[in-house]
Task: structure prediction
Amino acid sequence: MSLGQIRTAAGQRNRSALQFHFGDRDGLRLALARRHMPRVAKLQEDLYTAMIAEGRRDDVDALVEALVRPTAEYIRHGPSARAWVKVSAEEIRRPEILLSAMATHAPDIARTIGTALHTQLTRTLSTDLATERLLSLVMASLQLCADRARREDAPAGTPVRTALPFDRWLDNLLDMAVAAATAPPRRP
Result:
């Protein structure tokens, strides 16, 4: 998405406002990340802490939930949060974004959970397949969250695909994410 498209989506008429405040796309991305990532990380931290307290440190279902639920729940925090989810989904799907860059920019708690989940997946999958599953799981769930955010933000009267009520949608998202992570490989 170009700065012009971002400016239009934000309803900003001043063509130079984004450049004045943020410099360029990277400056804007950094400002958005600084605003939203700590909030999502806090949701992850709370889930992870509860999971550990329940003795579920090695539970794949709980680890997947700790990775996926915070972004989905963040949609409920309003238009700004939904915009962040949509921007994140656009960014993560860019093929030039390397896995190492994703990990570097992720909050510490997300790396902790991701590493724990990867370790659990390597018990039944090769390391490279476990890495691909984890990356695919994060990308797919983020895209589905962004799709939900787009539906939530659709102007009144705009025809949109029907959606399950939020809690059922989230349960289904988590079920699909766990199934994707734990599916047996076609070839060992």
